[in-house]
Amino acid sequence: MTLRVVFMGTPDIAVPSLSEILSNGYEVVRVYTQPPRPSGRGQKLTKSPVHQFAEIMGLQVETPDSFRKSKVIDELEKLQADVACVVAYGQILPQRALEAPVYGCLNLHVSLLPRWRGAAPIQRAIMSGDKQTACQIMQMSKGLDTGDILLSEIIDIADDDTAGSLFRRAGQIGASMWPRTLAALGRGGLVPTPQSGEAIYAEKISKAEARIDWSRPAAELDCHIRGLNPFPGAWCEFGGKRVKIHFARVESGSGQPGEVLDDQLLIACGAGAIRVIEIQGPGKPKMSAEDFLRGQAVSKGERFA
């Protein structure tokens, strides 16, 4: 059975899924992605990664600003698609849109549902010190990430994983799951499994929440920093200016929270200390701590706030 597929996705993590679906011979009749957004210093309108890839592959792309407009869903229904594959699309689909394809809409979500439903599951998993997450393809329903699970792959979270590295790995693992899912769907072999357990929501990361609280234990701050790397970046202040810490290592050491303990950016936490590995000053690119110290004197006893 050859399925007519609609693909919905926007960021880099979604591109491998679209590529895998195409390379396995499925007919992608339309791609939906977020409209071009201002990007870079010049704030030039930039097409999403999925948009750019879809155009290279000769696919028709739609960029509706809202799926709640009747005419948008009218066009989706006219496609007479068998299924919609959704990966980090970035819009809530109303019930009529969910029911437009014959087999509905399937969503790739990176978490062990129902833990970390919502917008930032990868960041939240790392920030909370989780040791495992998952790529799960589920049947989309009206609630936020509440649908039945159709296929699941467990992913171990390494001690040095950042949100960026886990995004990349999850993107590849998730992509490899689509051919199996679509093949099973075509032969009627998918077995839905209802979610069970306590639901925890992965709210969007706020700028204020990204601030480093030096009174927390070093192990917690390590998770906090890695979970916010590369975006939005964990930040603090030094000398009245905002700096971002992108990567650090837990080490022994004690002092007042935020106190610099040596001349190589060992900083005291509520318990233990962290050694800064990668840091970014205001208006500067990300750099090693060694390079940062060449241009910014930081003395033992000074404080990061």
Total domains: 2
Known CATH architecture of the largest domain: 3-Layer(aba) Sandwich
What's the Cα radius of gyration? 22 Å
SS-based structural class?
A: alpha/beta
The number of distinct helices, counting runs of at least 4 residues, comes to: 8
* Element order: H for helix, E for strand: EHEEEHEHEHEEHEEHEHEEEEEH
Number of DSSP E strands: 16
Oligomeric grouping of the chains: single chain
CATH homology superfamily of the largest domain: Formyl transferase, N-terminal domain
Low-pLDDT stretches are none
- Strand arrangement within the widest β-sheet reads 5-2-1-6-7-9-10
Return the CATH topology of the largest domain: Rossmann fold
CATH class of the largest domain: Alpha Beta
**End-to-end C-alpha gap:** 60 Å
Report the average pLDDT across residues: 97
The residue fraction in helices comes out at 25-40%
Shape: elongated
Biggest sheet features = 7 strands, mixed
| Portion in strands | 25-35%
Keywords:
single chain; 305 residues; alpha/beta; Rossmann fold; Methionyl-tRNA Fmet Formyltransferase, Chain A, domain 2; 2 domains; 7-stranded mixed beta sheet; 5-stranded antiparallel beta sheet; 8 helices; 26% helix
